[in-house]
Amino acid sequence: MDYLPIFTKLENRPCLVIGGGEIALRKVHLLLKAGADVTVCSLAFHAKLLEKADAKQVKIIKGTFSDELLDNKWLVIAATSDKEVNQHIAECANSRQILVNVVDNPVLSSFIMPSIVDRSPIIVAISSGGKAPVLARLIRERLESLLPMHIGRLATISGEFRHQVKKTLKSVSLRRRYWEKLFGNGQLGQLLQRGQTDKAIALMTQSLTEEVAKGDVALVGAGPGDPSLLTLKALQLMQQADVVLYDRLVSSEILDLVRRDADLISVGKEAGNHEVEQSRTNEMLVEYALQGKKVVRLKGGDSFIFGRGGEELEELVASNIDFQVVPGITAASGCSAYAGIPLTHRDYAQSVTFVTGHRKQDGKQLDWKALAIKNQTLVVYMGLIQAEEIQQQLLHYGRGAETPVALINKGTTADQHVVIGKLDELSQLGGGLKGPTLIIIGEVVCLADKLSWFNPEQGHKLSRDPFLVNLA
Ligand SMILES: C[S@@+](CC[C@H](N)C(=O)[O-])C[C@H]1O[C@@H](n2cnc3c(N)ncnc32)[C@H](O)[C@@H]1O
């Protein structure tokens, strides 16, 4: 960047223009628009400059340039037709560190004047740094036709309205959303275009009232169980919620972190046993949001991984409800980390696949052949009931009987229980396990021996004997 674009405040600040012709007149005009206190020095003056002097808009000094004219000036424009005079002015101004522009001479100038599109208070400045003035002009012309005239008016009334918006909408994100919606509303522009400013202001006020009255939904992933795995954003939203609709998998420790006055509603799901039907959950989200509530939809793990988050959002979109999505740590990440089983490892697994053991009645079959390939890790969610089928299919398609498998029950919680075995005994390993269980199949499971660190009984951290670690 050859120049730093800045917008300078010149209101009531003394500025000097040397030269009295057409070009000087244009520069004076711009400086006056910015409210500058303008003095013009020249041997002769354009008639319009004389008019401005008569109207006391500018001071004029008839004569040649002298250094003392620079006293107290903020900014100087040399617009004479004499190159030597212009150069002298530039040298004097530079030696006093006063910003100087020499018309059509970027080399002598310490600032240049851009092409501008003026929709005050919106101003677009374009400069090619003196390299391609025609190109800059063409860009300006394009922008002139793109930016409607009423945009300045829009910016002005927005500025007047800002304080009220700030008072009404407490958070930055709410305010941002309000403004984005407002400026995206074509109706506002049309009103201003027709000069109906009162109606435009009424529309802004009405939108603000609606924004306050309208609730929204945050689809929040609560992670696999350990409350300290919640994201900061999840926690913030839980603390601001009016209503929280939560799943069975969300632990009571996590629910304890929800704002005390919020309504907690269980819509828990277990494969085949839905406490509240999904369609009813969807309806409830919409109903509460339409009541103006801040709704948090809290789901175990991550909402977009076997969490039906997408289906709920589609319902919100259909009802025009605002929403946001906060990712959570999915069971595969949480459980594998807390069991010391890296899901990939350069020696054992170059890919990892997440599949669900529970599918829609008419759901598609899994591609067992692809899932049986060696050197990949298979993570099965909701797979306990289907353990026998998983075992048979993988063996049938060539996965080794000795392939290590891990069942992680209630992973990351104080009740975490890990069972490790081989693929040909998978269907036997889960007997007696209750609660959420994740199955990890693949060579990486053997690393648990060496890498497990989480001991729920002893308050998380497992103290390891370095001698045993080396033997493992
Ligand atoms: C309906 S899926 C929800 C998955 C969730 N959206 C996620 O990203 O983790 C439920 C399944 O996730 C797995 N799961 C979730 N939390 C778990 C945990 N703490 N320990 C073990 N498995 C868990 C189990 O396989 C459980 O049956």
Protein model, in words:
- With 472 residues, the protein is of the alpha/beta class.
- It has four domains: 14-113, Rossmann fold (3-Layer(aba) Sandwich), CATH 3.40.50; 151-213, Sirohaem synthase, dimerisation domain (Helicase, Ruva Protein, domain 3), CATH 1.10.8.210; 218-329, Cobalt-precorrin-4 Transmethylase, domain 1 (3-Layer(aba) Sandwich), CATH 3.40.1010; 332-471, Tetrapyrrole methylase, C-terminal domain (Methyltransferase, Cobalt-precorrin-4 Transmethylase, Domain 2, 2-Layer Sandwich), CATH 3.30.950.10.
- Helix content is 37%, strand content 20%.
- It contains 18 helices and 21 strands.
- The protein has helices at 22-33, 47-54, 83-95, 133-146, 151-168, 172-183, 186-193, 197-213, 232-240, 252-255, 278-290, 309-318, 331-339, 368-371, 387-396, 426-429, 448-451, 466-471, and strands spanning 14-18, 37-42, 58-62, 75-78, 99-102, 115-119, 122-126, 216-221, 243-246, 263-266, 269-270, 273-274, 294-299, 322-326, 351-356, 376-381, 404-409, 417-422, 437-441, 454-455, 460-461.
- A five-stranded parallel beta sheet has the order 3-2-1-4-5, sandwiched between helices. The protein has a five-stranded parallel beta sheet with strand order 10-9-13-8-14, sandwiched between helices.
- Helix 3 links the parallel strand 4 (75-78) and strand 5.
- Helix 5 (151-168) runs parallel beside helix 8, helix 7 runs antiparallel to helix 8 and helix 11 crosses helix 12 (309-318).
- The longest helix has 18 residues, at 151-168.
- 31% of the residues are buried.
- The site of S-adenosylmethionine (SAM) has 22 residues, from helix 13 and strand 19.
